[in-house]
Structures
1.
Amino acid sequence: MNGQRISRRSFLEVGGGATAVSLALGLSAGPGLAQARATVRAAGQKMPNGVELPESPPARRAADSVGFAIIGLGDYALKQMMPRFAQSKRAHIAALVSGNADKLGQVGDAYGIPRNARYSYDDFGKIASDRRIDAVYVVLPSGLHAEWAVRAFAAGKHVLCEKPMALSSAECERMIAVGRRAGRKLMIAYRSHFEPHNRKAMELMSQGAAGRVRMLHSVQSYRMGPTTPRENWRASRALAGGGPLEDLGIYGLQAALYLTGEMPETVSATVFRPEGDPRFAEIYASVASQLRFPSGAMAQLATSYDSAGANFAEVRGTSGTLIMDPATNYSGQKMRLEGRDGRAFDMGDPTLQFAGQLDHFANAIRDNSPIRTPGEMGLRDLRLIEAIYASAAANRAIRLNGDGSMRS
Ligand code: NAD
């Protein structure tokens, strides 16, 4: 593979996402937005508050363990994912990439990462010749996923990419195409697919444990503290798209699909953005959507950055109701079935989802086993997100094709 060639072409392709994002959001692509989207850059940030670094570096479990380079040493990487490599059977942290040299040194020392396996954003391209690195785990702000996934493919590495896969379906399509051309694998880090309660819920619903699914109701929300787009990438359209839907609501959207086992045929949605609130100068505060499935099942999904915390899913069938609350948290999942076969389910430790996800991708790389949450799933979800925004902008229902793209 010629890394340079793929890299140049792919950058041009990814750059085209700006207009797609603004159009999908139903907002006019003013010069400010287009410019902001084109100029978003990976930039070092300070160490997040409350990070506990390991006292001793975790040991590798398997001789054929897959080496990951972690890019984006932020809250999620440092507090959730990186500590969980210790529980993985076949994945280890081989390298780090950061724009903050102090943080890189501190985290590198704690995790036992050799100095010559600590990269900056500027020298990222050098990972191409680092044989210790098999895969890159992209944990950057969402608006940077596409660019850095493409760079990782150009360096000949496999990619595990955080959700949302990117900020537009066009970016997702390019990521998939570039990965294919490079002959490398792409997985989206949809951890709930590896969480025991969510796995059981999929099984129960597919077996008709609540009868035929009729209604699904899901909310993901929290109240964002005072901030501005400059201070917080989650408030910046260029880095976060429309906001809570891409960040939190995507879990409810995912659940609606994996619990009904169907793709929606129609979507209608509405959005809210208060005037004069700096948190919502560029993103929506709340998004509510309704999906109708071919079976007649209906899903009502709501997500917000401006209401008290919630993370639940309820599936009402013809003979019972499955209640998951919390549904897709890092831990503490609770699940019960009400109705004829009513009971509570304790499926074991939800935090196994983190290592489970890592081992799943490691197995796919080593054994060529199928990926449960491939790039195509991330693309499907971005198409649906675009349809939700398009529906809100047009104030009408949007009919969908089977792949989630808009029909009308
Ligand atoms: P964060 O702000 O805590 O960390 C982001 C990190 O990216 C920063 O610390 C910095 O190291 C790096 N970065 C590079 N360029 C940056 C820039 N221009 N602006 C800001 N940071 C920049 O964010 P996070 O909560 O760790 O989220 C990172 C990604 O992980 C997002 O895509 C998010 O959606 C995803 N995430 C997933 C889950 C999950 O449960 N799967 C949970 C949280 C976050």
2.
Amino acid sequence: MLMIGHRGAKGYAPENTLLSVRKAMELGVDCVEVDVHLLGEDLIVLHDETLERTTNGRGRLENYSFEEIRRLDAGLGEKIPTLPEVLAVTHGVVDLNIELKGKGSSDALIKILDNPLFDDHEKLLISSFLIEELRTLRAWNSGLKIGVLASHNLDESFDWCIKLKAFSLHINQQQLTLDIIKKAHRSGLKLYVYTVNDRKEMEKMEKIGVDAVFSDFPDRRPA
Ligand code: G3P
Ligand code: MG
């Protein structure tokens, strides 16, 4: 079972910062997950649409300019990184799961992935709850690995996986059942589960065939 560092290694460093990404890599994760939002024409690495939970800023991201965002402290003096900054650290070294949080973010991502600096897409998995973003990506590149983040309607999410020729279906712990694992595997999909921080839970998931877990503590691998 693969171990994916959630927002880097959220349990050990300020989430979605370069420090967190590097910490996850140090801990030997199989993959690092980060969340990205579109701000103007840039993709920045942040989970929320508002700033107060993870930075010393206030209010909505959309009310800030890129320069203002970059002056904020995202914890321990870390800046909110851009996606290319994260890619510069991970590219060719470790798998990266880019979770697209904002509308229109797929077009900005395509521009970045078209850059010869980042044109090796083998180690990338792009996921989102936003089906429109995933559709844009699939239309652009038939080989890109796509992960569908499941909605409350799992049947619908499975249908989207098939239509998008997805690589994986990502569900939360509460949605996990043996049937879903079987159905995913029958459909040729990997089944990824978030966010799992308890080692015993991880052990159980590994036994029943979960393919990967997202964890804030990605060093808590099952024995
Ligand atoms: O991509 C898995 C997980 O990160 C989805 O939930 O809210 O932590 O981005 P969230
Ligand atoms: Mg996420």
3.
Amino acid sequence: MLKDRFGREISYLRFSVTERCNFRCAYCSSYKDDAIAKEPPLEDIEFILKGVRTLGFKKVRITGGEPLLRSDIVEIVRIASNVGFEEIVLTTNAYRLKDLAKDLKEAKLTRLNISLDSLRRDVFSQITTIDKLDDVISGIEESIKVGLIPIKINTVLLKGINEEDIVPIANLTKNENIIVRFIELMPVKGNPFFERHFMAFKKAIEILEKEYTLKKIEDSNHEVANYYQIEGFKGKVGFIASISQHFCSSCNRLRLTSTYKIYPCLFSTINIDIKDAVKNRDFELLRSKFESAVFVKPAGHGEIKIGSKEFIENMRELGG
Ligand code: SAM
């Protein structure tokens, strides 16, 4: 297992397997034409997954762009399972999930994270610029039906846009083992959304506490969220405070972009290119690239404020 300079064991890889996306979420990256968006071929993904598993990584998250747009997505999950990852998770907008949930489960996907910022059709369309809320809901229902549980729902907190959705989305945890996580908006290069719509997680807690009593659940290792249970509800709600209360000291992850670059920290432009290692199927070079990435992983990203110079370069390439 790789260990960084600060004693953190690095065992979790987030891998953006495509830059393509069928949503155009207002707070995400500026969008490239999908025709020129990058994605590694399946053979490269197989080499990478085998390699990083050998280096001691236990958990892989498949993200993007929208990973379910890849026609070989089930095969990618199967490869991750065959090479022995203990946890294989996937982040999706759920638009294509209804048709794919069963095959993903059979390929041994462990769990899903589904992005859902509003339960109101007009607001959902305003944020994503696509009128597909019904498909997302069907995807969630199908995933529960095939046993891809517990499902995690990620909701980005957007001041002036989705405050009214906080209680209804938390209500999804009432009867199902669903975990809703409210996520603080992060700054993305060239996108003014952060300045206008950032909402601290404490505001969301305030809104929920007007309706419900929240009981704190003790943190487990490497959890990025603070979790609570609403009295009498089956699931739980969490808050990911990447900005106002970051969790760098327990960060155990590296990110691999759809363009073959390892990013040791989401908010740093430091990156290590592994293209040569992958194209030449050179495992020793791959190992040394990952070791370097772990070595340069910063202690943390410090404080990020409105107007900050620290921002995410390309959310879709990085995978969130
Ligand atoms: N297409 C997939 C999806 O929608 O979940 C995976 C990729 S998306 C980039 C991964 C996650 O990043 C989503 O939950 C999305 O809401 C989140 N995200 C994108 N831009 C963000 C931002 N500026 N701040 C916080 N989260 C963001």
